[in-house]
Design brief:
heterodimer, A: 741 residues, six-stranded parallel β-sheet, 14 strands, B: 703 residues, alpha/beta, Rossmann fold, 27 helices
């Protein structure tokens, strides 16, 4: 039984009955709970017809799952109502998908269209970029550093891989957000007088990329939103039907909605609709090179007729950590760089501790566990220091949770390596697609066995993947390994699977009924798979998946694999099981990119990993919390302040004049559609400011992940020339002031 | 309904059965009120009263709907065989064949002095690939729609067929579709492309004396029926008409009947209210209702024989939930709608739902003694994986099952694949050498008890350079033992058969298969011996190859027929719709898509609705190149097809489907639902919403 006793500020939100409401929440303020509770209350008590639903929109799938669970729990506990009825929880992409699936024709699609995920889209883009670069061997001339002009390696690998690809990706994303087709851009290019090399390059790649998508019968994530909006605009009756279907729309993480997404929701809300937007503009960390902007939510809250509310109380962290986080906000409002200051990277409300007597009060304060390290470490030294510290801390805090947060995946991988070497238990939650690969790998083992049915070794592998969920338990893992070894040694596989004269299983487990039953079950499953080999490949995969997977994202990944192989079969008409097995193997080995399901689908639960250390990026840590948090690499490379000595991630070492070509390409697009003059370099300057402000928010997110203890370190970078981030120095000054008083 | 349980006939029914033989009757009523029983009893009565059997015509929209009549006709062998049982298609074909010289020239055929060739759906696809395929490539047609070739062709064929059965000139189809389109303007050109393809195909048919379904109906309805001689012939031959499921037939058939009714001796026109499931094939229920005005007497049946009292209550509740309350249906006071359904507690995953369904079926059979033939598993779509999952799980419980899935590609049937592989092995001259994987699979299908592992052992040793060697060629005694001599012997028989066939090879693929099947595969010890589905596939494949040989061979005698045929099947053409005896109530559980079950014209005690969360119960498959509503008589020309039309069509379809199913269920309906569908996505279709709405309303009422 969930009991939810709202705080006074939460109650103000819950008192909502209709109209527009904007809520600015701070980290740990219980906004998800509040919003779920509000959703449940509306489902139960608002005047709605049977065909109407409360629509809840979230940012990522894991949040959607979380929401759905909470709403159904509240409905059951507080109102004794059926789950899954009267509401729908969707990500924005999921919502767009729902809309487009109802009207594929209006979007110019056939009903079997597939969604090409980021990875496969990247693959298509890769092809387009390569073919463009090889058709334009001189394309690098205009932008390379003079001393790199003759460097073949830079021209043929760095330029396409590190340069063109990212530039084109940003450009295409932006073009789609602005609802510009390649043909539309071509018209602008024709009408424009100056030469815009980046825009022209990106236009051609965009055209090729779109062709690639259409050839696969697919749309990418950007298209999905764009097409949903198009359908809503083109079909007023359909829009009216949806407006009727969703009389209440509740939106979480509203600070990350981009212009197109906001427009979509605005249309669904209509003129007199009911819309609650909850978000924390201080945690907007997905804005670079997008049309998203935390100002949208702030502006919304200032619109006439919008009820503005705040959720400032947070029981998550100790008072010390709250003090530091608030210190960062206040400092940023006085930021030494005027351009940054004017953008208000962080803004009020400040975080307030919970009122006394709150059931979810703040943890007891311990100022001694705030460590803002001043050492000028090298990257290796920093890593060693952190690993050493964890090694000492972990054994004494077995019931606590702990995380290392890094700005980039690559540094995370190194931390993982160091932890492994030091024999420290860790959990990896980095942006690799390990779960996708695991699913594909599992399917590959099964297909490989079906391809070579007399191989005992392959059958043993099937057994291992069938039991893969049980391998975490060391005792069971032992048993699994023993059985797998026994299967591997079977001389004649048929004597186990299809016994005629002798039954291997009777000999092996005749005196152990449990084991016998267990392996009989396995035998039944393998027989079923063998009987299924002549099914169309996608159906075979689904059949196998039904026996192997239960988790949502696993099933969805297996389904993507099935679709991928079906498409593969359509383009390779003679492909058979052995070919499909090889194709899957290539994906599993990561030779082939694949439309898996992003890891965000799985909700990560820090509390499930007590006594271990989690390694993840600050981006992926959003929404999560740990007792002790290490923030690494807080230097002026990862957290710049747009100072002259800063170097910026988007500025490639082989590009002349420190130009940020992604930013320049977008500026050229901008100039193109507005018919304005393009001045090289301005966008690069601008993007430094933008980047600096976003990274400041990222640091804020990092700090507010900690419940009780916080350690921040920095390093001097690969070349040894990086400084401590200005923000970190400022934080230390703030902290020292507290300590000394 | 067919005579499964002994059927008592009511006074009202009896009265209609015994209508004098100079009267025409229009009989209407919902499913399950005993209309078809009246039809079959009427036949029996006519025989008793010595009406000449060859003067009776039973006209149905599709062959499967005649199954109850065939049952009745079988009772009187000689007389029964003389009764005409036809669809508009077979009637057209017979008439065109008979009166060809009269119309060939006028109808525009280039060689009126030569015989016509009638094309099955398979042959239509063959020519589409051959004639239209290159045209599409050359001109870049349809470049803005993503659609696979086979589906594209089938939609072009659909357009031609609909035009002819609705009575619209086929030249207007593209324009009609265009004028109703209200989406992106740039998409409109696909309808022009479709029109060009239709026109080109029709020209090709006229040039070569080929008649596809659309042309057969067109020639019959627009040329023969208005002519004195053919019309006179028909009117004289068939003096007594029985037309069942007239609501599933099309406007040109209705128009013909409108002419015919005043001129025949007797007629019984049966009309099912709330049906009209074949709209995507041009059926028009509203139009059928106009036949009422042409009949002397009108009758109505409204007593439901099928549904239990609880089921009737459920029908009433669902009709109300779907905003279409049933008029005049009384619910008994003690009847409880909820007692007619089982809706288990929330199940999260699809495979668990399949398990639960199968477990429940097994319990019905073993614990409650329900006959297998009284259970049907219904899904909006029956995918291969779903069918396989159900089949294998039922098998594990020793529950016999059969399935029916119409409009599939032949190459998607494992049994067909195996037969194709065997054909390739027997015809090395084709140079289509099968892979070891294919051969191993073919052997497991062809030889009983041969498993994948042993098949692989066999093939690895004995299959070299496209040839199978004798079992004795295995030098290693251990391997022989592992395979077992019993299986080795069966293998040798098969291999020898193929060897001998190669000595005296006949060029005809259908002979090859029918001999292989008759002489070996259907015998004990071979895989088709007791496998319903495989046997049916084999029979269809043989029919299909024979038809192909006969037609294409007579048009193009030099074509490499057998090889062409194999290639055609490999391209994935859809199989012809064969009259499917699987639908009969043999002693096994039937797995079927919902509409197919409705078209089988029978009721059962227990229905299992699978995937009730799927949107497929209400929404039709989106076809970018054709449209069932716009290509109908009711559609006002030039009007745009909008969201409200789509919504109304979906709601109407859902209502008709759900009521149709409920009325064909006697005892109970089990609702199989998992939160996540087969593909891992959350399910929220209209049927689920309606059921949950009903449950909620009930809960509120009780509270």
């Amino acid at each position: 039984m969930t009991t939810f006793k709202p705080r006074p500020k939460q109650q103000e939100v819950l008192d909502y009955t209709g109209g527009l409401m904007g809520v600015a929440a701070v980290p740990g303020s219980g906004k998800t709970r509040t919003l779920s509770y509000l959703a449940a209350r509306l489902v139960a008590t608002a005047p709605m017809d049977e065909d109407q639903e409360v629509l809840v929109v979230t940012l990522v799938n894991s949040a959607a799952g979380n929401f759905a669970r909470q709403v159904s729990q509240f409905l059951k506990d507080e109102y004794e109502l059926l789950p899954n009825f009267g509401y729908r929880v969707r990500t924005l992409h999921g919502l767009a998908n729902d809309i487009v699936r109802e009207k594929p024709a209006q979007a110019g699609l056939s009903d079997g269209f597939t969604i090409i995920d980021d990875r496969e889209a990247a693959d298509i883009l890769d092809d387009a970029v390569r073919s463009w670069v090889s058709n334009h061997p001189d394309s690098a001339d205009w932008y390379l550093n003079e001393d790199k002009l003759e460097d073949e390696w830079v021209r043929t690998t760095r330029w396409p891989d590190d340069g063109v690809k990212a530039i084109a990706a940003s450009f295409i994303k932006q073009a789609k957000n602005l609802e510009l087709t390649p043909e539309g851009i071509a018209a602008y290019l024709d009408a424009y007088n100056e030469w815009l090399p980046l825009a022209e390059m990106c236009y051609e790649i965009y055209k090729d990329y779109e062709h690639g998508l259409r050839y696969r019968g697919g749309v990418d994530f950007q298209d999905l939103i764009r097409l949903a909006l198009k359908v809503l605009r083109d079909d007023a009756t359909f829009l009216a039907r949806l407006q009727h279907r969703w009389p209440y729309i509740l939106e979480d993480e509203a600070q990350d909605s981009n212009a197109l997404q906001e427009q979509t929701l605005r249309m669904l809300v209509g003129d007199n609709g009911n819309w609650v937007r909850v978000g924390d503009p201080n945690q907007a960390i997905y804005e670079s090179f997008t049309t998203a902007n935390p100002e949208f939510l702030r502006n919304f809250m200032r619109e006439p007729g919008v009820q503005a509310r705040e959720l400032p109380n947070s029981g998550r962290s100790t008072r010390s950590i709250i003090y530091l986080a608030n210190g960062l906000i206040k400092w940023s409002l006085q930021h030494p760089n005027l351009a940054i200051r004017e953008r208000k990277p962080l803004d009020r409300p400040l975080i307030e501790p919970t009122p006394s007597g709150d059931p979810q009060g703040n943890p007891p304060d311990d100022p001694t566990q705030i460590h803002l390290r001043y050492e000028r470490f090298s990257p290796d030294q920093e890593r060693d220091a952190v690993v050493r510290s964890i090694g000492q801390w972990l054994p004494q805090h077995k019931d606590w949770t702990c995380a290392v947060l890094v700005p980039m995946n690559t540094s995370g991988a190194k931390v993982v390596g160091a932890l492994r070497e030091a024999g420290i238990d860790y959990v990896e939650n980095l942006h690799t697609t390990t779960s996708t690969r695991a699913v594909i790998g599992t399917l590959t083992y099964v297909l490989n066995y079906l391809r070579t049915p007399k191989e005992a070794k392959a059958l043993a592998n099937c057994y291992r993947v069938w039991r893969r969920d049980d391998r975490d338990d060391p005792e069971v893992a032992d048993a699994i390994a023993q059985i797998a070894a026994a299967i591997r040694k079977i001389d004649h596989v048929e004597d186990f699977l299809w016994p005629r004269l002798v039954d291997w299983l009777d000999d092996f487990a005749g005196d152990n009924p449990t084991l016998h039953a267990h392996l009989s079950e396995f035998r039944q499953i393998v027989r079923r798979w063998q009987q299924a080999v002549a099914l169309p490949i996608d159906q075979l995969i689904l059949t196998i998946a039904a026996d192997l997977f239960t988790l949502e994202n696993e099933i969805a990944t297996a389904y993507s694999a099935a679709l991928h192989l079906r498409r593969y079969g359509e383009t390779h008409t003679h492909a058979q099981l052995p070919d499909f097995a090889l194709e899957l193997e290539a994906i599993a080995r990561n030779q082939r990119k694949f439309a898996g399901v992003s890891d965000e689908e799985t909700a990560f639960d820090p509390d499930a990993h007590k006594g271990k250390v989690t390694v993840t990026t600050m981006h992926k840590a959003k929404g999560l919390e740990w007792d002790r948090v290490y923030l690494m690499s807080v230097n002026n490379y990862d957290f710049p302040s747009a100072e002259s000595f800063d170097s910026f991630r988007g500025e490639k070492w082989f590009v002349r004049d420190n130009l940020n070509l992604e930013a320049e390409a977008l500026a050229q697009l901008d100039a193109l559609i507005n018919g304005e003059e393009y001045i090289e370099g301005l966008a690069t300057q601008e993007s430094r400011i933008e980047y600096a402000t976003e990274r400041l928010r990222l640091l804020y997110v990092g700090i507010t992940r900690a419940r009780r203890e916080l350690v921040i370190t920095w390093n001097n970078g690969r070349k040894g020339d990086q400084q401590e981030a200005v923000a970190l120095s400022a934080l230390r000054a703030i902290w020292e002031e507290v300590v000394s008083s | 309904m067919p005579a499964k349980k002994s059927i008592r006939v009511t006074k009202a029914q009896q009265q209609i059965v015994k209508t004098p033989f100079d009267q025409t009757v229009f009989l209407e009523g919902a499913a399950g009120t005993g209309k078809t029983t009246v039809g079959t009893r009427r036949i029996r009565y006519m025989f008793e009263e010595k009406v000449a059997p060859d003067s009776i015509l039973i006209l149905v929209p599709q062959k499967a709907l005649a199954l109850p009549y065939y049952d009745e006709l079988k009772r009187k062998k000689t007389a029964g065989s003389q009764v005409g049982v036809m669809t508009i298609g077979s009637l057209s074909q017979q008439m065109v064949d008979l009166f060809w010289p009269l119309v060939a020239e006028e109808a525009g055929f280039k060689h009126p002095m030569k015989r016509p060739h009638f094309l099955s759906l398979e042959l239509v696809q063959y020519y589409m690939h051959k004639i239209i395929g290159p045209e599409i490539d050359r001109n870049g047609y349809f470049n803005s729609v993503t659609i696979n070739r086979n589906r594209l062709f089938s939609q072009i064929v659909d357009n031609l067929n609909k035009a002819s059965v609705v009575g619209i000139p086929y030249q207007e189809v593209g324009e009609r579709l265009k004028s109703a389109w209200q989406g992106d303007e740039t998409q409109k050109h696909v309808y022009d492309d479709a029109q060009r393809c239709m026109t080109r195909f029709r020209e090709f048919c006229l040039e070569n004396n080929l008649l596809d379904f659309s042309l057969q109906v067109h020639v019959f309805i627009d040329y023969l029926w208005p002519m004195e001689a053919p019309r006179h012939y028909l009117l004289n031959k068939f003096r007594h008409l029985i037309v069942d499921n007239s609501e599933e037939d099309n406007p040109v058939t209705h128009a013909m009947l409108g002419d015919w009714l005043p001129q025949c001796d007797s007629a019984l026109i049966i009309y099912d209210t709330d049906a009209g499931y074949r709209r995507f094939l041009g059926a028009d229920a509203d139009d059928a209702y106009r036949l009422k005005a042409h009949c002397d007497t009108h009758a109505m049946l409204d007593r439901h024989f099928t549904m239990s009292d609880d089921m009737t209550a459920f029908a009433v509740e669902m009709a109300e939930t779907l905003h279409h309350p049933l008029e005049g249906v009384k619910v008994k006071r003690k009847a409880d709608a909820l007692a007619a359904i089982e809706f288990p507690e929330s199940i999260r995953y699809h495979p668990q739902m399949v398990d639960a369904v199968v477990e429940r079926i097994a319990a019905l059979i073993y614990d409650e003694g329900v006959p297998t033939s009284e259970i049907v598993v219904i899904a909006p779509f029956m995918s291969d994986a779903l069918r396989f999952a159900l089949m294998t799980r039922l098998e594990a419980y020793d529950v016999p099952a059969r399935s029916h899935r119409p409009s599939r590609a032949l190459r998607e049937e494992p049994a067909a694949l195996a037969l194709m592989t065997l054909a390739k092995l027997a015809h090395p001259a084709w140079q289509m050498r099968p892979t070891t994987f294919d051969v191993a699979h073919a052997l497991t299908t062809a030889i009983s008890d041969l498993d994948m592992v042993r098949a692989r052992l066999l093939v690895d040793v004995l299959y070299k350079k496209g040839q199978l060697a004798a079992f004795d060629n295995i030098r290693n005694a251990e391997i022989q033992q592992r395979i077992t001599f019993e299986l080795g012997e069966r293998y040798d028989m098969l291999r020898q058969w193929i060897d001998e066939y190669q000595q005296e090879m006949s060029p005809q693929l259908d002979f090859f298969w029918s001999r292989l099947f008759g002489e070996l595969l259907s015998r004990n010890g071979y895989g088709f011996h007791d496998d319903f589905d495989a046997t049916r596939t084999a029979a269809n494949l043989i029919d299909s190859a024979r038809h192909f040989r006969q037609i294409i061979g007579s048009i193009d005698p030099d074509a490499p027929l057998a090889k062409d045929y194999v290639e055609m099947v490999q391209r994935g053409i859809l199989a012809d719709a064969y009259l499917d005896w699987q639908l009969e109530d043999t002693e096994s559980v039937l797995l079927t898509p919902a509409y197919t079950f409705l078209m089988s014209n029978r009721a059962v005690d227990y229905q299992f609705w699978i995937n009730v969360g799927s949107p497929g119960w209400a929404t039709r498959l989106y076809q970018p190149l054709t449209h069932p509503y716009i290509l109908s008589l009711q559609w006002e020309q030039g009007r745009k097809w909008g969201d409200e039309d789509e919504l109304a069509a979906n709601q109407d379809a859902l209502y008709r489907l759900v009521l149709g199913l409920i009325r064909r269920c006697r005892e109970r309906i089990y609702l199989g639902f998992s939160e996540l569908g087969e593909q891992g996505y959350e399910q929220r279709g209209e049927l689920l919403m309606a059921i949950q709405g009903m449950l909620r309303r009930r809960a509120l009422e009780e509270a």
